[in-house]
Model the fold of this input.
Amino acid sequence: MQWHIITGEFPPQRGGVSDYTFRLAEGLSEAGEEVHVWTPEATEETPALEGVEIHSLPRRFGLRWLRALDQGLAAHPDERILLVQYVPHMYGWKAMNLAFCCWLARHRGSNVFVMFHEVAYPFKTGQPWKHHFLAAVHRLMAWIVLHSAKHSFTSIEPYRNLLSRLRPNARISMLRLFSNVPFDKHAGRGPLSGFIEANSVVGIFSNFSSEITGLLEDTLPTVLEDSAIQIFLIGPGSGFIQQFSRKYPRFKHRFSTSGRLDALEAGSYFQACDVLLQLYPGGVCAARGTLVAALASGIPVVTTAGPLTEPLLRHGGVLALADPNAVSIRGVIEELLADPALAGRIGAAGKQLYESEFDVPVTVEMLRQTARAGRRVAVNQ
Done:
């Protein structure tokens, strides 16, 4: 079958969905599938993928974009699957592109698969009315998309529960996010930028958004006080270092960062770390690409659980879970640094979970099995 992946992001554009789609297209092609990617045209050269045909569409997600998509797909009338990468805010129109959802509804009789990377903006007590409006529109959009899809996928249980409430009889399967960061299995300890080699390096892989840096500001002073720990920020961490150092100047020399980098370049930096500290509002969850990459690295991960944390991550010793306070987090980090055997077991368990539940071949096989099952049903009918 032909796989036609529709996405609002693709390299050279930065973003988690961009990197995800690139690796997905590559994985499907390597499995012998015919793959087409439909994405807005880029200002820079789009990287080539062997066996994958990239189709450029107008940049804005308006009627011209939809017309071009229709015309392009019409040139491929053979048996095909439309595989939509769905994030409500990725398709423009101030995150309310109902026209795109209605376009999908027109293709309801086709083989439409949808991967819900996100579902809808949340309803929160006390938030502005316009956020409530956005949350309601997102649920309407998801409802339309669910009714358009032959099969839907999502990455975590809370998303699947919401989708099931929106359409109780929909076919919805779990499709865990794989890491956008490739790792060399034979790589040794990576370079530390700006550090003397140290044996107590805590890495943090993040985009260092305000929701993350707030948690780090509350935690790192306790972690660093009276310790030999060095902090290595994998990603655009310079701004956070400056912000943190103004408030805690005595810790300035304890930080270094890789700086902004592509996902393809990040893998070697993980190997510079003894432990990874990955903190998230609401607790760790499998929808966080940085957490998935941390699991794939085989480096032990210290984090905290919360309302969004699924049993998959709570059990089996795949993570070093601390209570959600700085003292507990420091204690767990120190325990791992003092016990390399324990750290090795947790890192190995996390990597094993990643390879069995998250990795690219797992995703590709799930999609192919679903497509084959759909074809068998169609033939029997």
